[in-house]
Amino acid sequence: MKYGVNEHGYYGDFGGAYIPEMLYPNVEELRQQYLNIISDEGFKAEFDDLLKNYVGRPSPLYHAKRYSEKYGANIYFKREDLNHTGSHKINNAIGQILLAKRLGKKRIIAETGAGQHGVATATVCALMGIECVVYMGEIDMARQAPNVSRMKMLGATVMPASSGSKTLKDATNEALRDWIGNPVDTHYIIGSVVGPYPYPDMVARFQSIISEETKKQLLEQTGNELPQYVLACVGGGSNAMGMFYHFLDDEDVKLVAVEAAGKGINSGHSAATTFLGQEGVLHGSRTILMQTPDGQVVEPYSISAGLDYPGIGPQHAHLYKINRAQYTSITDDEALQAGLLCSQMEGIIPAIETAHALAQLEKMTFKLDDTVVICISGRGDKDLDTYIKYFNF
Length: 393
Ligand SMILES: Cc1ncc(COP(=O)(O)O)c(C=O)c1O
What we know:
Rossmann fold
C-alpha cells in the first residue's frame, strides 16, 4: 500500500514508537503479534460475525436527496451513527477486545473524549466479561454526561482526569500512566489512529471496514465504486482513516479531512491541528501537534469533545504533508448550525463531531454529477444538551 505504514512503523516522517522504557514490553508484544493475530482465519470469522450480528453492519450508505438538491451534487451519508452504541468507535473496540483475549489479557483500559470510545469499550468488555477502566477528562464528563452513565451501567469504572485542560489529551496521559503500572495483565484499547506503532495501523485496519463497504455500496447504487469526494471529521482521525483507507490509492478521489477550529483558528481557543501545529512527538508517535516554541503541548479547545485534541494521527500528518488529503477546519458555530440543518433537512441528528464534516459542504462547490460521501461518524443523542443550550429550544 503506497500510503501505508513501513516496516519500521513510519508513514514518511511520521509515526514510530516514542515510549518510556517501562512500556516497551507491552508495545513490543503488540507489534510482534498484531498482524499474525488479525490475519488468522479464526480471528477474521469472529470479527466479521460480531460486526454483522452485534454491531449491525454493513451500515447503510444513504443517498441524501434533499442535501443533494441543496448542494448540487450526489451526496451520500455513510451511516456509522446507526452502529450499536452510536458511532464508528465500536468497529475498533471489537477488533481490539478480540486481540486482547488472544494475548491473554484480563483487564482493559481506555481513554475517551466524547465518551463514544469509552461506551464502545465498556460494551465489548461486558460482552466478554472483562474488567474495564475508562479515563475521561473532567470537562468531558460534564459535557457528555449521558455517556458517563452509559459506561457505568455497562459495568465500567470511569476515572476522571483532572490535569491540564481536563479533556482527551489528559485522559490519554492517565491511561498511559495506568498501562505503565500494569504492564502484564492489561491491554490499552486506544480509540483512534494515534499512539505508538502499531496502534495507528491496527486501528486504521479495524476501521477500514467503512470504506470497504462504501465501495461495494457505491458500485451497487451508482454503478461506480469511486466517488469524487470523501469527507470526514478528524479528532485523532479514526473515522476519517477508515473512510479514506480503501480510496487512498485511487488518486482521483479527493479526500477532505475536517478539524475543529473551535472559536476560530486564531482565537486562542481552537483544535485546528494542521493549521496551528508543528512536527513533534505526542502520545508515543511523531506527528503534527499544537505546541509552544519550546515543545509544550498547547491546550486545545472545541465544543466537540471528540475533536478537542491537540494532535492528529501520524498517517494523517503524512497525508497532509504530501498533499494526498486536504485538511480544513470548521468553527463551533458553523458545526452547530450544520447539525441543525441535517436534523431538519434529513431527519438525522448528528454528533457535533460529525456536524463539522457536514458544515464543510457549505465551503465547497461541486459539479452536478459529482458523487460525495460523508462519514456520519456518530449520532447526536449525547450532544442534545449542547444543542439545546445553543439554540435555546
Ligand atoms: C461521533 C464521533 N466522531 C468523531 C470522533 C473523533 O474521533 P476520530 O477522529 O478518531 O474519528 C469521535 C470521538 O470521540 C466521535 O465520538
